[in-house]
Specification:
6-stranded mixed sheet; single chain; 5-stranded mixed sheet; elongated; alpha/beta
């Protein structure tokens, strides 16, 4: 390791627009708030490197998602290293991030004295080893012998999530900074996960998100919490209000009986309808279902009628009170 450096490490931004139940303009505003927060930390902490450890994108980006990415690149004012995660995998051993290497570097040259590099191969930079996801399952070169490794790898979340490779392969490094698992609490062995800096799916309550600040000489680190707008799902009873929320984006799962739910008006904030009986049997109905489909689900899974009985009832009702 050369001199003592300060690194800000984050991963799993998952830039995506048009996610179900998430307004596009709200998403854009949230990403821009995140980009400002990351750049502010870099300036306040005087970091030597910002490292984006994979899954910047959720999938091959469209033009609107690329625009967000370029806005982020134009904000950055420190040396930055970007490498691929599994969501940026193109095909075996390649990544679509390769197509952004030149333009990303040119943006950094045009906006300041810093440099932004996308790496898509094994690399050693200032005494830090890099294994991007597109090279994770290849044979690793012998000259990767630094104390710190940056990579993107799925670790273990007992009892169901298993590591995608043998984690003992990382024993040669003192510290591994990794993307993939979305919570800092998933850190394990010598692997530190910062977790996603923003929530990428809906949660019942707010969750902790943040980034990692690492000293390369001492290997000391601090996890810095970020206060970002989040995706929240709440359960309410039929007839209760579904108020829009300004900061977080909240959607609602509405519980009730069939008669209550049939009178429920469609709303952009309505996630799903849940039919409940005194027996606690539940049935989940999505807003996209036709009335006929809702009745069929109710007869089958709540009243637990036979397929023959359900077919007879639907045949009787079809063309009379139910429109397909």
């Amino acid at each position: 390791m050369g001199w003592c450096m300060k690194i800000l490490f984050t991963a799993d931004l998952h830039i995506k627009l048009g996610q179900k139940n998430v307004p596009v303009e709200w998403s854009k505003s949230r990403y821009n708030k995140l980009f400002r927060a990351i750049c502010d930390i870099c300036a306040e902490e005087k970091v030597d490197y910002l490292i984006l450890g994979g899954d910047i994108f959720d999938k091959l980006p469209n033009m609107a998602e690329l625009e967000l990415y370029f806005d982020f690149m134009m904000r950055i004012r420190c040396d930055t290293i970007i490498y691929s995660g599994n969501h940026e995998a193109d095909k075996k051993n390649t990544t679509f991030l390769t197509n952004l290497k030149d333009i990303t570097y040119q943006i950094s040259c045009a906006t300041g004295n810093h440099k932004i590099h996308i790496i898509d191969d094994f690399k050693i930079i200032d005494g830090i080893d890099f294994i991007p996801y597109n090279k994770l399952k290849e044979k690793w070169p012998d000259d990767l012998q630094s104390r710190i490794l940056c990579t993107h790898v799925r670790g273990s979340i007992p009892p169901h999530v298993k590591p995608e490779i043998d984690l003992e392969l990382f024993d040669k490094w003192d510290l591994v900074l990794a993307g993939d698992l979305h919570s800092y609490s998933n850190s394990q062995l010598n692997i530190l996960y910062p977790g996603s800096p923003i929530t990428t799916s809906f949660h019942r309550t707010r969750v902790d998100t943040g980034v990692l600040l690492v000293e390369t000489e001492t290997l000391e680190h601090r996890w810095l919490a970020l206060d970002m707008p989040q995706l929240i799902r709440k359960t309410i009873k039929a007839g209760e209000p579904m108020p829009p929320t300004d900061y977080d984006h909240t959607i609602y799962e509405v519980e009730g009986d069939m008669s209550e739910l049939s009178n429920l008006e469609n709303s952009d904030l309505l996630d799903k309808k849940v039919v409940k009986r005194e027996s606690d049997t539940t049935l989940i109905l999505s807003p996209e279902m036709t009335i006929a489909r809702e009745v069929e689900e109710y007869l089958k899974y709540v009243l637990q009628l036979s397929d023959e009985s359900v077919a007879e009832i639907l045949e009787e009702l079809n063309g009379c009170t139910i429109n397909e």
